Amino acid sequence: MAKTSASYACSSCGATHLRWVGRCSKCGEFGTVAESAMTSRAPGVRSKGTAPTRTARPIGEASAQRTYRRPTGVGEFDRVLGGGLVPGQVVLVAGEPGVGKSTLLLAVAHAVAEQGGSGTLAGTPVLYVTGEESAEQVGIRAQRIGAMSESLLVADETDIQAVLGHIREHRPRLIVIDSVQTMASPEVEGRPGGVAQVLEVTQALTRSAKERGVPLLLVGQSTRENTVAGPRALEHLVDTVLTFEGDRASALRLLRASKNRYGPADEVAAFEQTEDGLRQVVDPSELFRGHRDVPVPGTCVAVTMEGRRALLNEVQALVATTTTGRRTVTGLDPARVTMLAAVIDRISEKKIDSHDLFVATVGGARIIDPAADLAVCLAIASALRNVAVPAHVLAIGEVALSGDIRPVQHLQARVNEARRLGFTRILVPIGSRSRLDSGPSQEVVTELDHINLALGSLDRIATQGY
What we know:
Blueprint: E1 3-10, E2 16-17, E3 33-40, H1 59-64, H2 75-81, E4 90-95, H3 101-115, E5 126-130, H4 135-145, E6 152-156, H5 160-170, E7 174-178, H6 195-212, E8 216-221, H7 233-237, E9 240-246, E10 252-260, E11 268-274, E12 277-280, H8 285-288, E13 299-306, E14 309-321, E15 327-330, H9 334-347, E16 355-361, H10 373-385, E17 393-395, E18 398-399, E19 405-406, H11 411-420, E20 425-429, H12 441-444, E21 445-448, H13 451-456, H14 458-464
Parallel strand pairs: 4-8, 4-9, 5-6, 5-7, 7-8, 13-17, 15-16, 17-20, 20-21
Antiparallel strand pairs: 1-2, 1-3, 9-10, 10-11, 11-12, 13-14, 14-16, 18-19
Helix pairs in contact: 9-10
């Protein structure tokens, strides 16, 4: 009989080790060696194949079966999934501790439980299994956020066999496991959360969910680099990987899809953390904009893309006279802001090298989209010259080292979002008109080919609205 024992493998190069080491002796990477499973057989014993569980079919028959979705009732969650959950779909929701993963999935479980079932699922409950907290602790959170459906069952288990027993007994229409790192199988050696245990637990849960055609939501932890913690094979075992991001200093939470076999893999949903749980943010652009009656110097609005969603972000800049030339950046790439400041310094008559420069985003937004370059430049120049950019003006464009304003992707979506929120003058790179649909959007765009034109016309923008 085969015996399962523990070994250690490098997640970077795959090299195996007899014991844990901090640095892989083969590839030299630090922190990549983790526990894995290894099965040994008696010498001379060959493994025998087993009978197939499902008959092989022509691919035409397999593709003829149409996959249908079941909306969960949480619109932003369904948006990231592509419209809802597919029967048998396994979804991994990863995020840092305390970001709100358990609160989100408890709200999803409640919404599904409130819908009731149809057909063979009529009258079946939703099963929420927690390994990190007791059932009473989950009940307190459920009462706080209003997730008190009678069809929502909660169990606190860490033994995977007991979890599978709950699934067989209750036959739920949705399964939530919080979290996969806390579950363990007695058939595999190793600590809970180790490579061997995580893989075994995930495979057992996935088999059970797909055999019953029941969606499965798994909670997982993420690293400081915002990647899924644990073995890399975990992401290959599931159908969908969602990442829940958030900053402790901000109430905004973003749910991103990095892998999705049944829908788009670049969608983003927005939530706001409140005392009563997570609130869906249908229009995230309003969170990132500064609301004021009179425009002030040092501000400019950009349109960035988060997945397929266009978001308006306000960039603010403050320039103060000093002899140190300090640079402080929040919410943007400091190296890129320094580069843009150097481009402005080379072009502008009023030099910025003898000033302190502070650049930040509104609402805790993090911008990595180069399409915000033009807005950053205008915000810095506006603060430097003490001239306000009008509230109806918005800038879209990437700025090169030469000062040229380069085209950006998804221009039509960006312009549509700007027009929807009432901007009547949109600064875009040269040649953008040909990429836009004909109609009113053509009348509000102004093409620029160099940052010098934008800076030179800043006074005219303020006085004449361009």
